[in-house]
Amino acid sequence: MKVEEFIDPYVGQSWGSLGARILTSGNQISVTLGYPAAGLRDTLASQLAEFLGVDSVDLQLSFAPGGGSGFGQVKHLVLVSSGKGGVGKSTTAVNLALALDAEGAKVGLLDADIYGPSQGMMLGVAEGRRPDIKDGKHFEPIRAHGLKAMSMSFMTTDKTPMVWRGPMASGALQQILGQTLWGDLDYLIVDMPPGTGDIQLTLSQKAPVSGAVIVTTPQDIALLDAMKGIEMFSKVDIPVLGIVENMSVHECPSCGHISHLFGADGGRRVADDLGVPLLGQLPLAMSIREQADSGQPTVKVEPDSQISGLYRDAARNMAAQLWGGNSASKAPTISMVDD
Questions:
Q1: How far apart are CA 190 and CA 217, in angstroms?
Q2: Exposed/middle/buried for 263, CB within 10 Å: 0-12, 13-18, 19+?
Q3: Domain ranges of the chain
Q4: In CATH, 74-326 is 3.30.310.80
Q5: Which pTM was predicted?
Q6: Closest CA to 153 of 192, 111, 198
Q7: Which of 31, 152, 175, 281 suits 114 as a labelling partner, its CA being 20 to 30 A distant?
C-alpha cells in the first residue's frame, strides 16, 4: 500500500487523486490536505499505520486551501443557509467558523441577515462598538474570538429595526461584503437570512460563492423548507456542500434519556434523497443556546467538549467536500526521501 492510495475519511477518494502533497521518509509522513484537520492528526496517524501495515506513523499534517473561487484574498465564500427561521442557523454558522479556525484555517464571518443580525451578540461584541473606517470608504472587520467579523449589528443598535425594502437590504449587503478589508482568508462564512429571497439571489448573482451549507432540524416542515433551499442553490449553480441537522436529539440532564423531539434522522433522509453529504448532527442542548446568547460560543468556551467535537467534525467535512469538488482534475504531488 502507498500513502497516496489512502482514502480520505470525508471525501471517499484517495489522497493521490485529490492532489494531496505527500512526502515520506521512513515512518515520517508529511501530508498537505486541502482542508484544515489539526484535530484529526492522531486519528489519521492511527488509520494510516493500519492502512500501511506498520506499527506507527509519525504524521505531520498541514493545510493548503488551494485555488478557490473567492475574491481578493478570500479564497472561499461559503453560505450557511436555512429554509426557515428557528432552526439554529446563526448558532451553527458561528460555531462552524470557530471550528475552522480551531482546525488551522484563517476565517472570517459575515452576518448577511440584514433585518435580524445576531452575530454581534453571539461573538460577544459590545453594543455600540463600530468598525474602523479606512480611507473614508473601507471597513476594518472587528476581531472576535480569532475571527474577522462584520455585521449590520455593528452599524446599528439592538433596538433599531431595518425598515428597508429588498433592494435597499441587498445594496447594504453588497457594500458590507465588498468594502470590508477582509485580508487573507481561507474561508469567509456567511450567515444568511432564512428563506429564499432577495439576499440569497443577490449573493448568488453578485458574489463568487464556493458552496452552501443547509441547516435544518429533523422536523418535517423544516425539512420541506430545506429541500426548497437546496433546489434554489441548484438553480443558481451553487454547490450544496452538505446538510447540518440541528436539534437532532435531546439527552435529559437528569436521567440520560434520549428523546427525538423533532423526529429522527430527517436530515439524513433528505441528504440521501438529494445526494448531498450529511455533515453532522448536533443535539438540542441548553448549553449551546446559553453560550451563544452570552457571546461565548460552544467551540470557543468548551473546545474539548463532545459538542465542540461535533462542530469541528462538521467543519472538516464541509471543507473537505469543497476540496473534493475542486480537486477532480488535480494530479498528486508525491516525493520520496530515502533514509
A1: 20
A2: middle
A3: 3-65+327-336, 74-326
A4: no
A5: 0.87
A6: 111
A7: 281
